[in-house]
Amino acid sequence: MIVRCATTNPGKLREFRLIFEAYGGGGIDLRPLEGLAAIAAPEETGATFAANAALKACYYSAFTEDLLFADDSGLEVEALRGAPGVYSARYAGPAATDAENNAKVLAALAGSQERAARFVCSIALARGGKLLGTFTDAVEGWMTEEARGSFGFGYDPLFYYEPFGGTFGETAPERKLLVSHRGKALARLIREL
Ligand code: IMP
Asked: Contact at 8 Å (CB) between 139 and 116?
């Protein structure tokens, strides 16, 4: 069975592939949506990760006959009342780099002892513009005071995961996906498929 995924983020695509391998998505042929870069992206106007994932899955699935999934994910920091949340990718501005987003979240938390945070991921499955299901999961951790490690992407170097005794930036991808928001949400999708 061919399943398309709608992401232009190479960090995410790498993780999706690893997750499919790890969770026995063996019979599933995971491929990116052909021509994705040439398709105008829809505006992510949803107030939740699930709403944005659904909006993207419905939109992009109209460009293929195959099943397609899209994800939306981000970081929720308790002391920042859930920010950056659905704005995680553009927290420091529309074209913000990971380093700029990380600097902004560290500045917002400067001096704060309250450092609980979670990564959340919603994955929506659609075909021909119709939503078939949404799968959401999360991983709990703590915001560090400085970046540590060079694995992963985004806020990984700032996200301390207690059971591993280090940040996701210090965690090999194969290990991260077994506990991560994206790994667990995708595992739910794979079970459904
Ligand atoms: P999306 O592409 O709209 O889902 O935005 C996701 C953004 O949230 C990314 O650009 C990262 O900044 C952040 N994010 C989501 N998942 C992760 C993760 O696993 N590690 C680090 N940052 C993440």
From this structure: no
Of 66, 71, 72, 98, which one is the catalytic site residue?
72
Look up the pTM and report it: 0.94
Best residue among 12, 88, 91 to mutate for probing ligand 1's pocket (most ligand atoms within 8 Å of CB) is 88
Q: What is the pLDDT of residues 142-185, one digit of tens each?
A: 999 999 999 999 999 999 999 999 999 999 988 998 999 999 99
Q: What residue owns the CA closest to ligand 1's atom 11?
A: 154
Please state, in angstroms and rounded to a whole number, the distance separating the CA atoms of residues 60 and 66. 11
Q: Which CATH number fits domain 2-192: 3.30.30.10, 3.60.10.10, 3.90.950.10, 1.10.3210.10?
A: 3.90.950.10
SS3 89: helix
Cα–Cα–Cα angle for 158, 161, 163, rounded to 5 degrees: 160
